[in-house]
Give the backbone structure.
Amino acid sequence: MAENMEEKVNRAILVGLNSPRLSQMDNATDSSMEELAALLETAGGESLGVVVQNKDCPDPATFIGDGKVDEVRDLVQATEADLVIFDNDLSPSQVRVLTERIGVQVMDRSALILDIFAQRARTREGRLQVELAQYKYLLPRLTGMWKHLTRQNASGGKSPIGTRGPGETQLESDRRHIRRKLQKLEEELAEVRRIRGVQRERRIKNEVPVVAIVGYTNAGKSTLLNHLTGAEIPANNRLFDTLDTTTRMLEITDTCTVLVSDTVGFIRKLPHHLVEAFKATLEELQYADLLLHVIDASNPEWRDQAEVVDRLIRELGAQETPRLEVFNKSDLYVGDIRPHGENIVSISAKTGEGIPELLQKIADRLDSGAKRVVLHLPYEQGGVLDTLYREAKVEQVEYAETIEVTAVLTPKLLGQLRGWVFPPLPEEKEDWER
């Protein structure tokens, strides 16, 4: 009885193609196949075997060639697998042919990642973004699903009864339905972008710096945000554990407060539709004052992973944003000399090692020169207090002969209100007067 109640786990054979005709990024390698197995586990599946084909060029119909297809089919039957997942992207027609030939569902890496994102999205914004990516992925595949009917209709009208017309009609109907859904989703996400834009303008006006944490999936971004801000985001050792952006205030020094945002993890072969859909979230990188690129120092392939992140940062137009490279899990680093340099810091988000140095480097780059002062406001200037609550960090208010306000002010606000500061601030001198 207990066995029947257990959720059925997908059992899959993993397949990859290595070919000189494919780019280095698109090829299946030992590490990319290991990552595919980790993705399958994240999705709740189990790997029963791995097949890698070395071939001069991809087969247009089956991608891996007829002989290898037969080998995969035999392995599926022997292991009773119910799914085959390719590490490479497949065309819609290749998916259809392979599914027919192997006898179980065939999907590619992009479809698997989309499935994981669909499982993990929690907020309305996250769900909208995933749904948009799924529909964009599905739209070109409709043709492959209905192509056999279209082909029969084009053969001079001698197609079997029941296949003249309805297939094409259904295809067009499905396309129209999906295009309507896409338009609606894009309108909703445009509204998300608009709201983000308003919030961003308010932050800029209030001169609150923004720090965005980016990095390869499972590099430790959420653990770092938790350590810095006590955000209490679930931080598990699995891929794509965080999809929904979390933003928290962080007081770096008593006069420097910043907003820190966690972002979705990057991964090699990340579906383009997913990057496009998540631009509503990821465009924050362009407007951040500082990027913390978190790198898993314990992973032997950290250089390749860092390059994937760098490429996506460029694609998102954030390559000019100042950046610190944060080598996390440095307590597990296996090399002889830890990476070091002016824009590099080694930390362990788990143990706290290196965090003070990281905070100092953030402060060095973002401290705006704010000062803590006491203002003595006449009661007739009570409206200034509203401005202070909006644009400064008000710490204490006392009502005596005047309104005494202790607050941290930006240089701009301090310049406007310095006449009410007590004790008076010394006059600032120009460089040539010093």
Observations:
- The longest helix spans residues 166-205.
- The two ends are 86 Å apart (CA to CA).
